[in-house]
């Protein structure tokens, strides 16, 4: 699986979930990062990299 495909699917999964109270989702493609802002103000950063292909 290509890294970009994985990042796109992860973004879609987070964007469509009702289980998490996500207020904002920002993708920084060049840095391979997803920034997830929660409704309570918490911010998480998810870093993606391919380990093996």
Question: Can you walk through the features of this model?
Answer:
- The protein has one domain.
- It has a 3-stranded antiparallel sheet with strand order 1-2-3, with helices on one face.
- By secondary structure, the chain is of the alpha+beta class.
- 26% of the residues lie in helices and 34% in strands.
- 2% of the residues are buried.
The percent range for helix content is: 25-40%
User: What is the gyration radius calculated from CA atoms?
Assistant: 12 Å
Quaternary status of these chains?
single chain
Say how many strands there are.
3
> In sequence order, what are the helices and strands, one letter per element?
HEEE
- Supply the number of structural domains: 1
Give the termini distance in whole angstroms: 7 Å
For the residues shown, what is the average pLDDT?
96
Strand order of the largest sheet: 1-2-3
How many helices in DSSP terms? Answer: 1
Molecular shape: globular
Largest sheet: 3 strands, antiparallel
Short summary:
The chain is an alpha+beta fold.
Give a quick set of tags describing it.
3-stranded antiparallel beta sheet, 1 helix, 3 strands, alpha+beta, globular, 53 residues
């Amino acid at each position: 699986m290509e890294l970009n495909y994985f990042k796109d699917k992860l973004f879609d999964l987070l964007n469509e979930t009702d289980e998490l109270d996500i207020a904002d989702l920002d993708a920084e493609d060049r840095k391979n990062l997803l920034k997830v802002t929660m409704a309570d103000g918490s911010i998480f950063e998810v870093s993606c990299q391919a380990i093996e292909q």
